[in-house]
Amino acid sequence: MKPKTVATLILVGAGGTALIAATGVWALSGGLYGCTRADEELAPILASLSILDAHPSRTQPRDERYSGCDEDDGFAYAGQYYRLTTSRADVLAFYRKAAAEDGWRLRSADSSPSPAPGSLAVDTSTLCFEKPVAGTTAHLAVWFPGDLGDDAGDFGLEATVSRDGAAWC
């Protein structure tokens, strides 16, 4: 073989090996599935959002605030449940105002987000807001577990965000 041909084969082989190694590093860091490190770093940012502390005066926080990263869908989340001690309409009116004052923009409103019998629940938020957080778009959902057949005496707030835009209400 000519030296030029050998040199070309070595360069192509080295380039291919580097590409395979880079792909392996990307896959192991969450590139193929689950949360990336960048998404995981967003969870504490969401957990510190002041809107999660806002609630109508006659409601009370229930349990501790939760946060983490959804490995199935690859987005960060944080939320808080509240005991429903006022009307649903009062809760919705409160968050329309509080979210707007905190810079959130109403994206959608659905007065009855319950899934049809036998169907998959995709979006159960009654109100969905969005706002820039940490250089990407965060989503804030106001939802009622009773819409899914769970405890009708609670409501929840949940913020979600991802670096690749996979988050939603």
End-to-end distance, in Å?
62 Å
Shape: globular
As a percent range, the share of helical residues equals 25-40%
Succession of helices and strands: HHHEEHEEEE
Strand content: 25-35%
**Strands, count:** 6
Number of DSSP helical runs: 4
* Regions with little confidence, pLDDT below 50 for 5+ residues: 4-31
Number of domains: 2
Strand order, sheet with most strands: 1-2-6-5-4-3
What profile does the largest beta sheet have?
6 strands, antiparallel
**Multimeric state of these chains?**
single chain
Structural class: alpha+beta
Query: Rg to the nearest angstrom?
Result: 22 Å
Summed over residues and divided by their number, the pLDDT gives a mean of 81
Question: Overview of this structure, please?
Answer:
The protein has a six-stranded antiparallel beta sheet with strand order 1-2-6-5-4-3. Helices cover 31% and strands 30% of the residues. The protein has four helices and six strands. It is α+β, with helices and mostly antiparallel strands and 169 residues long. The termini are far apart. The model is unreliable at 4-31 (pLDDT under 50). The chain folds into two domains: 1-32; 37-161, no CATH class. The chain has helices at residues 3-31, 37-40, 42-47, 88-101, and strands at residues 60-70, 75-83, 105-109, 125-133, 136-143, 154-161.
